[in-house]
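Example complex used in Figure S2.
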Amino acid sequence: MKLATYRDGSRDGQLVVVSRDLATAHYASGIATRMQSVLDDWNFLAPQLEELSQSLNHGRARHAFAFEPEKCMAPLPRAYQWADGSAYINHVELVRKARNAEVPESFYTDPLMYQGGSDDFLGPREPIVCPDVTFGIDFESEVAVITGDLPVGCTPDAALEGIRLVMLANDVSLRNLIPAELAKGFGFLQSKPATAFSPVAVTLDELGSAWMHGRLNLNLESTWNGKRVGLTDAGPEMTFHFGQLIAHICKTRNVRAGSIVGSGTVSNKDWSRGYSCIAEKRAIETIEGGAPKTPFMRFGDTIRIEMKDAAGASIFGAIEQKVARG
Amino acid sequence: MKLATYRDGSRDGQLVVVSRDLATAHYASGIATRMQSVLDDWNFLAPQLEELSQSLNHGRARHAFAFEPEKCMAPLPRAYQWADGSAYINHVELVRKARNAEVPESFYTDPLMYQGGSDDFLGPREPIVCPDVTFGIDFESEVAVITGDLPVGCTPDAALEGIRLVMLANDVSLRNLIPAELAKGFGFLQSKPATAFSPVAVTLDELGSAWMHGRLNLNLESTWNGKRVGLTDAGPEMTFHFGQLIAHICKTRNVRAGSIVGSGTVSNKDWSRGYSCIAEKRAIETIEGGAPKTPFMRFGDTIRIEMKDAAGASIFGAIEQKVARG
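Predicted assembly (652 residues):
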């Protein structure tokens, strides 16, 4: 099934079930009003939502209406956890190579992850508001999962069983704030403003055989100012699958229902596939020509992030954001 | 007023109002059942809770019962944000001096903060469960605040107006995991297991003149295995006050209601006041004798963290935790 959260003026919005073709939707209010409630009580509520989803897909839902992604908040408008990996090691290799730094050997066995802010996510059509364009505004096209409860010490395989929903993310980054912030040693804070998510989050069965052992084997499209700049394969080159990323957090603590875990920028060794963040394009330019040429985003720029299935249908709907001064 | 959350088997527990002397409590269920609901709608709900608090303090609340801190979850059992500062620069100076590192000049003007996990907090009497004692289990006695909504670009003074509640925190750290994790560059993840909070969170008026411009001018007691090891003054040596810490987050994003912001380990230049975390004691030993002597916590160890007012009464109740293998 596919789930979304409609804006209704409240902090958590209204849960809706969306049809597979993203054409119609139906309020889930007879079952649950908020996405977090469903995650808190998944085994009881998910089957009921599944039933509504079936009716909707078969055109039998009584009060269906046209689905409008413009009305969406993030599927989970605020979350108790947002931890983002950097699971495509090719991205790390490129960025480091551009600044003549080595990738430590441990990075191939120990996932790189950061704890992000999760109190104020953006809906798929909300602007990226930034006070200062010199902060170096960049998009990062990613895949993300929402989990159920997973206990401390959980293995990667067991963690896979706890994945409830999959969606897309734009992990907006302020590149020019990153070097000084990371030099302080405590990770990201100011350099990661609000993250945006796709209109819908979907259960694994919606992904069919494209979902395989914690990796999503489909292409992620990034379109910047109307030009497709990336068509990167999210599958085989994901060095650490989602179960490994979740288990990494579980080493010393529980992961509770509604935690969101991101893949990091999807990145491929084949440069002809393009890029899922500008920083990577700039790294390639630096490696090839000694200096970056492509500037970061400007006020008024647009970014569209989408993933299509084998038949060319959009799975999650598109993230479409504009950069705004604010 | 003083608020707490009683364990009831649910994820968010039951909100209770606690009397000033921590002797009695009353369910707030006629007003709100969960702490986050109160933070989401503070201006409407807080006055009603205040009224109940007055009745309780005057012995006029009908269904009051004896307050038992053992029944408490964290005041906010899970939160949409937990960002912890390192606001007592003396702590940073000591730790760096012990490893012959300099404190960068910017650390005196730009707060050091990290984004922590907030999906699974510990109540004040819940054990610190750790799979391996060689991780280097340490307590960190801190002051923390819970905020309302604050907009991006908010000033430190305006941020002070958004502080709703104050409580104590034990920001448990796994010291021996920290060096390798921070060397990866993305901050803490595995080295910060679940944080514990005091039985009650209190509004600023409960602190009287001890709360002054974002600092809490009272002593924080840390008692390790029954021995008081720290009686540190949380006030004057807090280099960055809570408004500055919150405004630091607000530079590039909104801070939403229910965000928890911590002070970091309370630390004083006068070593005779003791310590609020073992790492600091070990730093002092290293500076004085070339090597640390005090080991980190062992399974079965206890830690008690408490703060008393000028009259000697406990303000927040005590955090009392035992270290357990798990």
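The first helix of chain A runs from residue 35 to 40. Chain A has a mean pLDDT of 97.
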